[in-house]
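Could you join me in thinking about how sequence relates to backbone shape in a protein? We need material for that, and I hope you will provide a protein of your own picking. Once you have written the record down, we can walk along the chain together:

…
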Amino acid sequence: HRLGSSNGFVFLYRSMTDTTYDGLRQEASSQLVLSPRAHAASEHHYARLQWRIGAIASVLLYFGAAIAVYPQIEDWTMIETLYFSVEVLTTVGYGDVAPTHSTTRLFAIFHILFGLMVMLSVVGEMLGDIVEQFFDDVVDAIHDNIAEGDSDSKLANFLQRCLILGIMIAFGAAFFHYLEGVPWIDCVYFCVVTVTTIGLGDVTPQTDGGRLFAIFWMLGGVTAMGWTVSAFSEILLERMRHTFHDQLTLGDVDLAKVGGEDMSVDRMEFYHHYIIEKGFMDQVQYQLMVDNFNALDVNGDGEINVEDIELHKVSTSPERKRST
């Protein structure tokens, strides 16, 4: 019976996406003739619409399957079922609510794998849009204040997301303190353990009200944490690019060390120093490159030219090998 329910969900998903998408396309094409550029934009619009419908259907399938199975076998309430499903979806996994029967554990294997695919492919982007819309006014105000005094837009973006994450943690801690009645330090600790998806499970909501709030707060908090980590990674990558693009100055070149006794640096010595100094290669890799060039420069004149190619052909010809 439950397998039949799952097949029904799959059929509903495919019917919603295929029928809706085809109907919208037929309606649009019957009403007007589009130019190639407008047609491409229209195709993109309806493809995006199809993706959103598929995303919503996937989320409904995920939670619908949980509701169809866990309460009947585990005797969970609706709140416990959704709470566990969100724990899985966000990979928090406190362990305070978990399947105990072999049947539900077998179902959970596939339910968890499907949930992770849904989270990685659709839920993350959907939640990002929701959180962005919710904090839109806050982000704009922060951006105006930071951008005036800070030319680094990536740093400004990171600070914005840090503030949003801080608001989410403070908001969650306040609600859990009110709903669960636990000390403030435990509430903040619980929120940080949750948004980082560590999910130690030593502090968890015990009341229906706390778990109901956690269902929605976990989704927003984990999304905000992902935003912040992503922004921090962008800063690190940007600083690495600056390191590669920054030019050496005369103060960066030690003439005695690079140039030797004559205290002068020629073009090749500068190339060598720049490559090693910037970390593009270490000394061993640089020497391998030099050895490679010397091997290709058969006549030893400091250039790779037609003569080197001809000499290489002669040295590797079958007649030369037999004579040696």
Observations:
- Confidence is low (pLDDT under 50) at residues 1-17, 28-34, 147-151.
- The two ends are 80 Å apart (CA to CA).
- The chain is about 80% helix and 0% strand.
